[in-house]
Specification:
heterodimer; A: alpha/beta; Alpha-Beta Plaits; five-stranded parallel β-sheet; B: alpha/beta; five-stranded mixed β-sheet; 14 helices; globular
C-alpha cells in the first residue's frame, strides 16, 4: 500500500479564487492510501517545496499528489523536489486544478467539486505508480551532415569548430549547392562565390571534416547517439587523393556536347569535368553515361594526358559504414519543373528562362561570361519581363504548383531587375507581382531602391500568356491597379519558379523516420520553440529542407542546428525518458501491428523460446522496444490487439483507475 | 454437392505423406454423426484412408489450427483449404502467427457447404445417415421410415449463398481449378439492420444476443482470435469463462469481440457456423467490414499477405471522426 501525501496549491488567488483549497485538502484525506494532506499559498516556492520534503520524511511518504497548475508548468519542479527528498521522481502526479479547473469555473462550489474529483483521480493513479528509472545510452561523438550546400557547410563548420568530427555527404561532385550557382546576393549585392568559396575551402581544410562528395546515404539505422549509416560513394573513375584538379583531362576530352548541369544546360561540358573553377573537392569526375572509354572501351585520352595518373576506369562504387551520434538534414531545394506552365511558353522558347537560369546568365563564370544575352540569338535583350509567383501561392492550381509562398523570389527578382537596370540602363524592366513581400533586415529598402532609384516597372497583376512570335515574346498581362490589359513585346521573360524540397528528402525522411509535411518539407519538433530539431531525436534540420529560406536565414538556422548537435555530442551518455512502451512477452502475439504504427521505428521482433501451457517449449515471435528510440507516444499500446503493449507511467490500469475515480 | 471427390483428396494426402513432402495432414475426419465432421490431424496413410471425410459438411476452416500445430510439429504439415479459408490463412501470415515454410497448402475447390440447422429444419432431428446424391442429400432419420431427399440449394449455409470468393489466394498446389472473386450480396442483411431505428435495432440484437450461452465457441473457432492470452480467460477481467449470469454477453461480449477482430476479420463465417444458438454473429463483423469499405475504401482482409489494414494505417485522405458522424446524420 502506498503512503500518499496530497499538496493543494492556492496559486495565490489563481486557484483559491474559485476553488476552496481547504475543502479539497480535507476531502482527499479520505482517499485510499492518503496519509497526509495540506494546502499552501505557493507550492512551487521554496517554502512550499520544503513542506513537501518535510512531509515525505515525517510521514514516510511513498507517493505525492500535487494539486496545482498544468504538469507542463511544474511537473519537473515537483519531481526534483521528490528526488531531493529521496523519492523516485516518477512517484509524483499532478492534478491540474488551475488551467482545467479554477480558470474555467466561475462558481466556487462547482470548481471545488471538480478539483476534488481531479485530485481523486491523481490519487488513484499514484496508488498504482511504480518507481521508474530512465535508461542510458552512449553517444557516438561524430555528426553526419546530409547535403553540402551553404546550410550543410555552415553546420559542419560550426560543429567541427567545437571539436567534433563531421562528415558531409553531398550527391554532386562538389559541395557548394545552389549558392555556388548564384551571381550576387541580396540585399548587399556581394558576389555569392566571393563569400561562399572561402567557406568551401575552410571545409576542405578543416581536419575535423570529411567530405563524401558524389555520394548518397543508402541506409540509416539506430537512434539518437547511435546511428549506423551506410554511404555509397559513387565511382567517379578518378582517384580523388591523387587528382590535382589541373584540368588537363577536361581540356583534351573529345566528348564536348554534354549539357552542363552547373549552368542548367545552357552550355556544354566534357565527359570528364570539374563542375566549376572553385569546386571542392577540386577533382575531376567522369560521367559514365557520356564517356566513350567507359561505354565501349574506345578513347582513354584523359588517362594519357593525366600526369598524376589519377584516372581509373575500373573504379567501383564504394560502400562506407560509419557510426554517428547526430544526423543533420540539409538537403535543400530545387526550382519546380516548368513543364506544367504552358502559358509561359517555357518549353517553346529558349528566351523564357527561370530565375536560376538568369543567375547563370549574369554570372561571370556562366555561359555568357556574365554578359546579359538572350539564349536564342545571343542578342542583348531590351525589354525584360519578370513574372513572380510562378507556381507559388497556387491554391487554386495546386496540381500545377505549390500552395505556399516560396519566400525568396520577391527579393531575388528585385535584385535581378536592379542589376539589369544598373548594367544596361537602356533596358525596360517589368515585374509582375501578386504582392511584394520584403520582411527582413534592409529588404524593403532594397526593393524600394529598385523601384525608386532604378526605375523598375512594378505592375500588380499576373501574366496570362506568353506567345513567341518572330524574335519577340508577346506578353499578355493584366494591370490590376490600372484595371487594364497590357501587351508587351519582350525579348526575355524570367519566371520566378516556386521552390520545392529536393527529391531525395522523401526517401531520407523514411530512413530517418522523421516526419514531413504535405509538401515534403521536414517538420520541426515545435514550429516556434524547437525549430531546428526534427521530432525524431538526434535528427536536426538545416536550411531549406525545412521550408523556403534565403541565405541569411539558412545560415542562422544552420548554426542553430550545429549548436543543438554540439549540445548532444558534448554528452557522454543520454538519459532516456522512462515513460516508454514495453511489451508483455507472455501476451505478445508478434503480429507486427505495433511496429507498423510506431512513428519512430522503435519496435523490433525477436524469436524467443517460451514454455507453453502444456509444458512444451515453443519459439515465439515477440516485440522488443528499444528504450533509447521510444518516445512514449503510446500509439502501439492502442494498436496492440492483445493488450501486450503498455506505457510505463501511463499503464492501462492506471488510466482506468483514474477514470474509475472520476466516475465513482 | 462437391465436384471434387474424396478419393482425389485422400490420394493427394497419402502421396504427399508417403513421399515425405509432409509429416502430417490436417483435414476433415469422421465425427460422431454423419454431419459432424471433425478437424483431425492424420499422421499415417491408413488413418487417412480410414477416417478422412470430404463432403458438404466440411465447413471447418483449418487456418487457425496451424498456429498451434506448426509449433508442435517438426517438419511440414499439409492443410486442405477451401477458397474462403485461404483468406484467413493469409491474414494469419500477415500477423506472423505461423511459419509459412512449415505448411504445405493444398487448395480445394468448394461448391458451398451445407448448414445442418437448415437440414434439420426440413427433416427434423435424429439424423442417422446421409447419402450425397446428384439430386440432393438423402437423409435417413430415426423417426421416419422413408429417407427424405433435400435439395442442395435449400440447405446451403448463408455464408455460401453469399459466397464472396471462389478464388484461392494462397496455395502450394491446387486440386481442380481456382475461381474468381464474386459479387456477393453479403451486405444486404447488414443494410437491412442499418435501416432499422435504434430501438428496433437494439431489440433485434437483444433478441439474438440474449440467447448466448457463453460457450466461447465463436472465440475458439475464430481465425482472428489467436491471442496468446485472451482477456476472456483472465479471471481478473471479471469476464472470464463464465455462465451468462448477467447482461454481459448480451451487451458486451460479442461487441468486444467484433471490435477486437475489426479490420482483421476476413468474413469466413466460422463464428456463425459453430454457434449452437444460431446467433448471426457474422453480421456484426460484416457491419465493420462494410463501414471500413465505406469510410476508408474497399479492403478485404487476407486478400494479400502483408497489407496494412485501414484501421492501423494512416493516410491524408482518411476520414476524420467528425466526417463519419456527419455522414451518419445525412443518411
Amino acid at each position: 500500500m502506498q503512503r500518499i501525501g496530497v499538496f493543494v496549491c492556492w496559486c495565490g488567488s489563481n486557484i483559491a479564487g474559485t476553488v476552496d483549497v481547504h475543502a479539497v485538502a480535507e476531502a482527499l484525506k479520505n482517499e485510499p492510501g492518503v496519509v497526509f494532506s495540506t494546502d499552501y499559498q505557493y507550492m512551487c516556492s521554496q517554502a512550499g517545496q520544503d513542506i513537501i520534503k518535510n512531509a515525505v520524511k515525517e510521514h514516510n511518504l511513498t507517493g505525492i499528489v500535487v494539486c496545482s497548475c498544468s504538469p507542463r508548468m511544474h511537473e519537473a519542479t515537483f519531481r526534483k523536489t521528490a528526488a531531493a527528498a529521496g523519492l523516485n521522481p516518477y512517484m509524483v502526479e499532478i492534478a491540474n486544478i488551475r488551467e482545467q479547473c479554477s480558470w474555467v469555473h466561475k462558481n466556487m462550489q462547482t470548481g471545488t467539486e471538480k478539483a476534488i474529483i481531479l485530485g481523486k483521480a491523481a490519487v488513484a493513479k499514484v496508488n498504482l505508480n511504480t518507481p521508474l528509472t530512465p535508461g542510458e545510452s552512449p553517444v557516438t561523438k561524430r555528426a553526419l551532415v546530409i547535403g553540402g550546400g551553404i546550410a550543410g557547410i555552415q553546420t559542419a563548420l560550426d560543429i567541427a569548430d567545437a571539436g567534433f568530427p563531421v562528415d558531409i555527404v553531398e550527391a554532386k561532385p562538389t559541395i557548394g549547392g545552389k549558392m555556388a550557382q548564384l551571381d550576387k546576393t541580396f540585399p548587399t549585392l556581394d558576389c555569392a562565390a566571393c563569400i561562399l568559396t572561402p567557406k568551401m575551402v575552410d571545409v576542405a581544410q578543416n581536419e575535423n571534416i570529411r567530405i563524401f562528395s558524389y555520394s548518397e546515404v543508402q541506409e540509416i539505422k539506430g537512434f539518437v547517439g547511435n546511428f549506423d549509416v551506410t554511404i555509397k560513394k559513387k565511382a567517379r573513375f578518378v582517384k580523388e587523393e591523387i587528382c590535382t584538379g589541373c584540368g588537363a583531362c577536361v581540356e583534351k576530352c573529345p566528348m564536348k556536347k554534354i549539357p552542363n548541369e552547373f549552368n542548367l544546360g545552357m552550355d556544354n561540358r566534357r565527359a570528364i569535368y570539374i563542375p566549376f573553377a572553385q569546386a571542392v573537392p577540386k577533382v575531376a569526375t567522369i560521367d559514365p553515361n557520356a564517356c566513350n572509354m567507359l561505354k565501349n572501351g574506345k578513347c582513354g585520352v584523359c588517362s594519357k594526358v593525366c600526369t598524376a595518373g589519377a584516372i581509373d576506369y575500373t573504379q567501383k562504387d564504394e560502400i562506407i559504414s560509419e557510426k554517428y551520434g547526430a544526423v543533420v538534414v540539409a538537403t535543400g531545394f530545387n526550382p519546380i519543373s516548368m513543364d506544367k506552365f504552358d502559358e509561359f511558353a517555357y518549353n517553346q522558347s529558349k528566351d523564357v528562362i527561370t530565375s536560376l537560369e538568369f543567375e547563370r546568365l549574369t554570372n561571370a563564370a556562366g555561359p555568357t561570361a556574365g554578359k546579359l544575352l538572350r539564349p536564342s540569338d545571343l542578342e542583348h535583350p531590351h525589354t525584360i519581363v519578370f513574372v513572380q509567383c510562378v507556381g507559388s501561392r497556387c491554391a487554386a492550381c495546386a496540381e500545377k504548383g505549390k500552395e505556399y509562398c516560396s519566400k525568396i523570389c520577391c527579393m531575388y527578382t528585385a535584385k535581378h531587375a536592379m542589376l539589369v537596370r544598373d548594367k544596361y540602363p537602356d533596358t525596360e524592366v517589368y515585374v509582375f507581382y501578386i504582392d511584394v513581400r520584403t520582411p527582413g533586415k534592409n529588404f524593403d529598402e532594397f526593393y524600394r531602391r529598385a523601384v525608386e532609384e532604378y526605375g523598375v516597372k512594378y505592375i500588380k497583376g499576373m501574366v496570362g500568356k506568353v506567345t513567341p512570335e518572330g524574335n519577340k515574346l508577346k506578353v499578355q498581362a493584366s494591370d490590376l491597379i490600372a484595371n487594364k490589359q497590357l501587351h508587351i513585346d519582350a525579348d526575355l521573360v524570367v519566371l520566378a519558379a516556386a521552390i520545392e524540397p529536393d527529391k531525395s528528402a522523401r526517401s531520407l525522411a523514411t530512413m530517418l523516420t522523421a516526419s514531413m509535411d504535405t509538401n515534403d518539407f521536414f517538420t520541426e519538433a515545435h514550429p516556434k520553440l524547437r525549430p531546428v530539431e526534427s521530432p525524431t531525436a538526434g535528427v536536426f534540420l538545416s536550411g531549406a529542407c525545412q521550408g523556403p529560406k534565403d541565405i541569411p536565414e539558412t545560415v542562422s538556422q544552420a548554426s542553430a542546428a550545429a549548436s543543438k548537435v554540439i549540445g548532444l555530442l558534448c554528452k557522454d551518455k543520454l538519459t532516456g525518458n522512462p515513460c516508454i512502451a514495453s511489451a508483455n512477452e507472455l501476451m505478445c502475439n508478434g503480429c507486427s501491428t505495433c511496429a507498423n504504427v510506431c512513428p519512430y521505428g522503435a519496435i523490433t521482433y525477436e524469436d524467443k523460446e517460451f514454455m507453453m501451457p502444456d509444458r512444451t517449449k515453443a519459439l515465439r515471435r515477440v516485440a522488443q522496444v528499444n528504450p533509447a528510440v521510444c518516445q512514449g507516444c503510446g500509439a502501439c499500446t492502442v494498436a496492440c490487439m492483445s493488450g501486450a503493449m503498455d506505457l510505463r507511467g501511463f499503464m492501462g490500469s492506471q488510466i482506468i483507475a483514474e477514470v474509475d475515480a472520476i466516475c465513482k | 454437392m462437391q465436384k471434387i471427390t474424396r478419393d482425389t483428396l485422400v490420394s493427394k494426402a497419402v502421396s504427399l505423406l508417403e513421399n515425405g513432402t509432409v509429416d502430417a495432414v490436417l483435414g476433415w475426419g469422421k465425427g460422431e454423426f454423419a454431419y459432424d465432421v471433425t478437424p483431425t490431424v492424420f499422421e499415417t496413410a491408413d488413418e487417412i484412408r480410414e477416417n478422412f471425410v470430404w463432403n458438404d459438411f466440411c465447413g471447418a476452416n483449418f487456418s487457425k489450427y496451424l498456429v498451434s500445430k506448426t509449433r508442435k510439429l517438426e517438419g511440414k504439415i499439409l492443410v486442405f483449404l477451401k477458397p474462403c479459408d485461404t483468406y484467413s490463412f493469409n491474414q494469419l501470415l500477415t500477423e506472423h502467427r505461423f511459419d509459412r515454410e512449415k505448411v504445405y497448402v493444398v487448395g480445394v475447390p468448394c461448391e458451398g457447404m451445407a448448414d445442418i440447422s437448415k437440414v434439420k429444419a426440413i427433416t427434423g432431428d435424429g439424423i442417422s445417415a446421409i447419402d450425397f446424391t446428384d439430386n440432393g442429400l438423402v437423409i435417413t432419420t430415426l423417426y421416419d421410415d422413408e429417407p427424405k431427399t433435400v435439395a442442395y440449394e435449400d440447405i446451403l449455409a448463408e455464408r455460401c449463398v453469399n459466397c464472396k470468393s471462389k478464388k484461392h489466394v494462397a496455395y502450394d498446389e491446387l486440386l481442380g481449378e481456382t475461381g474468381e472473386v464474386l459479387e456477393s450480396a453479403r451486405f444486404d442483411e447488414v443494410a437491412k439492420i442499418e435501416a432499422l431505428t435504434p430501438d428496433e435495432r437494439f431489440a433485434f440484437w437483444q433478441g439474438e444476443l440474449s440467447r448466448c450461452i457463453r460457450c466461447n465457441a465463436c472465440r475458439d473457432v475464430c481465425p482472428a482470435c489467436t491471442c496468446e492470452k485472451c482477456v476472456f480467460d483472465n479471471p481478473n477481467s471479471g469476464a472470464e469463462n463464465k455462465a451468462p449470469a448477467n447482461s454481459f454477453e448480451e451487451q458486451m461480449f460479442h461487441i468486444i469481440r467484433a471490435f477486437h477482430v475489426a479490420g482483421r476479420c476476413t468474413d469466413c463465417g466460422e463464428c456463425s457456423r459453430v454457434c449452437p444458438q444460431n446467433i448471426p454473429l457474422h453480421l456484426l463483423n460484416r457491419k465493420f467490414i462494410r463501414d471500413i469499405d465505406n469510410f476508408y475504401g474497399e479492403y478485404q482482409a487476407g486478400a494479400e499477405v502483408g497489407t496494412r489494414a485501414p484501421l492501423v494505417d494512416y493516410n491524408l485522405d482518411d476520414l476524420e471522426a467528425s466526417d463519419v458522424f456527419e455522414r451518419r446524420d445525412s443518411e
